[in-house]
Design brief:
Belongs to the plant dirigent protein family. With 160 residues, this protein is mainly β. The protein is built from one helix and nine strands; from the N terminus they run ββββαβββββ.
């Protein structure tokens, strides 16, 4: 996460909030070998690289990437590194968001805290709600629907 993030020159939000709806899914042109689950007796981390798309279909337009790692529930209490990085590259939004799992319970719906952003998402905070879209797929091929509810600081006030 960036400690200092300038406000994007390309995108100034006219409202102090933004809602986005996206999907995280396995890239179709890459095998599942880009997902590495470390055995529990080792570090116990689940590391992944996924794509962000506009829709749930595997032919949907790609709008960015989702990368990160999660520590399983058994070791979660000792970890502060359950973070996902959502990177966007579209005409409307260019930048990234950092979202942190507050409590991972391996449910069909997980709520993450938006802890920062860069570019179009500079200084964003809010909530990211992840829901599983298809229970029939393997763990490595699960698609998630992500609803982002973002708030931005008031850019209209002038500093003296």
């Amino acid at each position: 996460m960036a400690l200092v993030s300038p406000v994007s020159h390309n995108k100034i939000h006219s409202r102090p909030w933004l809602d986005l709806s996206l999907y995280i899914q396995q890239p179709q042109n890459i095998t599942t070998s880009n997902t590495h689950a470390v055995p529990r007796e080792d570090a116990g981390a689940f590391v992944f690289h996924r794509i962000l798309t506009e829709g749930p279909e595997n032919t949907s337009k790609v709008v960015g990437k989702a990368q990160g790692f999660i520590i399983p529930v058994e070791q979660f209490q000792q970890s502060e590194f359950n973070v996902l990085y959502l990177t966007f590259d579209t005409p409307d939004h260019s930048g990234s968001l950092s979202v942190q799992a507050i409590k991972v319970a391996h449910k069909d719906r997980e709520e993450f805290k938006v802890v920062g952003g860069t570019g179009s998402f500079a200084f964003a905070h809010g909530v990211a709600v992840f829901t599983q879209t298809d229970e029939q797929k393997s763990d490595e091929a699960i698609t998630y629907h992500v609803k982002l509810q973002l708030e931005f600081p008031n850019h209209s006030t002038k500093l003296l």
